[in-house]
Each structure stands twice: as structure tokens, then as C-alpha cells.
Amino acid sequence: MTNAKGDIAVVGLAVMGQNLILNLAERGFTVVAFNRTASKLNKFFDGPARGRNIVAAHDLREMAELLAKPRKVMLMIKAGRAVDEFIELLLPCLDTGDCIVDGGNSHFSDSMRRAKYLESKGLLYIGCGVSGGEQGARNGPSLMPGGSKAAWPLVKGIFTAICAKAADGMPCCEWMGENGAGHFVKMAHNGIEYGDLQCIAEAYQIMRDGLGMKVPEIASAFTEWNNGELNSYLIQITGKLLTIKDADGKFLIDKILDVTGQKGTGKWVSASALDLGVPLALITEAVLSRDLSALKDDRSVGSKLLKGPKLKNLSDTKNWLNNLQQALFASKMVSYCQGFMLLDKASKEYRWNLDPGTIASVWRGGCIIRSVFLDRIKAAFEKNPSLPSLFLDDYFNTSLEKCQGGWRETVAAAVEAGIPVPAMSSALSFYDGYRCNNLPANLIQAQRDYFGAHAYERNDRPRGVFFHFDWTGNGGETTAGRYNA
User: Fold this and answer.
1) 310 is known as an active-site residue
2) Whether 186 is catalytic
């Protein structure tokens, strides 16, 4: 321990907070640690913090006095009201130019509000997305800071030192933009994570129920896939966790209840997509699939009463595994495509000027969705920074075309077998819709004009010019207002 003033304070000694403090200390920073519960603070200093460059603060004023100016205080506490309450407690202890960093999973709108509020008090604010879980916090997370622009120089050296590094040595941390940009990017990250996890789970169920594969065989398939285009953290850990056995020698995966928890970030992504008019179909299906899993008791009854096709094991396992690999890879591409479409729309709506290539670069290491796939995304946006959709990049449209056969075969076979594949099938429908020049939306718009005089555009007239037709002969010329609601 040193007598020098602290470089940064971390408030909150839950798993993420403790590991982030240890990471900071190992990188040569003097860290001031504070926790409301004194017993947890004492336990931390009697254990992992012992002998390290970490200083305990027993109240917030002491914490402030132990920090070098301008002070930097990072909150690693539960999102929501607790953050606002802690900010109010901190205000009397801080001076003009000091910076508060919220490293929790806060909603981006809260970060927008907090940035404005703290700036009005002469303070700086950063809402920082932190991805990588316990191990990431300890060894190098992916960091997505945004907020008060003047705050970035204060923390840049610290954040780039403790974050993960990509294979090319680049720090997996960069400034995202003003007010809520950092937490929005983290929210989009979590949405893509939801989609990834659901697609992997669907592949697992097809192997288990459709192909009749045993757990070791499924583990081997995921391990083999991780050596190719699907190489990623989530595919890697799936292969590993499927090899773990319980104390009785049976595979642990078979004893885990089929109910998926969630903390709300997926729902936030879907709600934001609806607000912004972005068709985030796959990710929304992933959220809804978790809701469906929660209906365990209902599903148990339904499994006995509701009839479906008789489940038959698909023959030619090797061929079907190849199809399934293509379906998983294609669906994964759609998930990322939708996520980056959301980022693009939000960037324009909130005037953040988000850089999609930078975001892909930051996600290449430390975070939960890290994969070799992100190098392709980074390259796509470097080649064309204004790319409206990854579907329009040569690598992506060529890859989707290559995977299309196995993708369609997999979804069709799952439907015939009665195996639910909401994410994979939604991804395929989105792809088919995106490549369709003439959707049946003209019929819907005609119906809306018939019953509600909502008007329509014509394909033989310039865009933005609206028409109304008196379909019944009894209507008038007055049309309804045109707005999004």
C-alpha cells in the first residue's frame, strides 16, 4: 500500500466491483475502495485486497479526501434508484471538475438524464458499459464509456490500461459518444448476446432431440465448430460446459431446469427498437423465448395435452450437422446485422455519431460476444463507414448465400419435427424480407386507407406524395394524419 493519493475510487464490492479493483491495482493504480456494508469491506481487505495497492474508505468524505483531484469515482452498484441515491450522497463530497462513472447496467435514458444533471452541478459524468463478467472485470473487460466529453481524458489512461486487448493489441475500450451513448452500446451488446445464446440453444436442441445425439457428441460438435467461422467465446464455453459432470457422474446439463433468467436489458433493447422503428426480430424472439421458458408449469401440462408431429431422429447426422452449422452461422450474422442497424438508428436519433467500426473493434476482446466474426464487421465498416446494413457488405451477402441451403433445410426440418426454432426461423424471415423488393405491405396500406383514410404512396409517383381513394363511394376526401405511434 502507498501513501500517494488514489487514482480512482470504486464504490460497491459485489463480484464485479471487487474484481475490477484487483484489476486496477495490478495495473499499478492506487484504488480507494468503499462499500456501504462495513463487514464486506473488512472481509475484502482481510482477503483478496491484502497487501495490494488498495486503500479502504469507511465513509464517502474519507473516500473523497483520499483521491487525487480531479477525483474519479466509479459506481459498481445495482442500476436504478440506487445510482441516483448514491449520486446525491456524493455531491457534497466532490468539487467542480470531479467525475462520477456509472459502471453498472443502467438504462441509457438514465445516463442521459444524469449527465445533464451532473454537468449542471459543475461535475462530469460517464455511463460506462462493462462486459466480460467476473473474469473480464478481473483480467480485462470490454469497456464502452460515454457521457461528458471532457471526462474522457480523465479516465482514458486508466480504462485503456485495464481493458482487454484484441489479438492485434488494440485496447477494447474507446469513447462512444455523449450522454447515454456508452450505456446504449452496452445495451445493444446485450441484445446481440441474447440472440447468440438463443440460436446456440436451438442448435443444441436440434442435436439433442432431432438428431438424437448424446451430450459428449454435442460437446464435440461445438468444440469442432469453434475451430472455424463460428469461433467465439460463447461457442467455446458451450463445448466446455457440456463436458462437466455432477457428483454422481451424470452430465450436469441434464439436471439444469429449462428456465432462463433475465435482468431486463434484452427487454430494453426490444423496446428501444420498437421506439426507433428498427425490426429487431431475432433479438426480440430471444427475449420472448426466455419469457416462454418461465412458463415451466404450463409447459409441463401442455406437453401432455398438446399434440404435434411424432419426433423422428434425422438420418445422416454428419450432413445435418453441416446444415445446422450453416443455420447457426447465418442466424448469428442476422443477429449482428440487426444490432448494428439499431446502433445506426439510435446514433442518428440521439446525435451520438457512433462509429460502428470502433464498436466492433471494442467488442473483439474481453466481452461476452467476442468472436473472430467481429473482425469481419470491423473491416466492413472500415471499407464503407456509411454502410446501412451488414447484409450489403460483400463478405456478408456472399456468406449468407453460401449458408442459405443448410439454413433453410434446418428450419424446415425443425418445423416438421415440432422443434421450436424461433430465433433461427425469425432470422430467415428477416433475411427473406430484406431481400424482397415487393412485400405485401401495399395490401395492408390499402386496407388502412379503406377503413381509416390513412392514405398511401404510389410506386408510379415520387416518394413522399400521398393519395387517398374513396373505396366505398361513400367516403370523403379528408384523410387521417400520418405519424408514427
Assistant:
1) no
2) yes
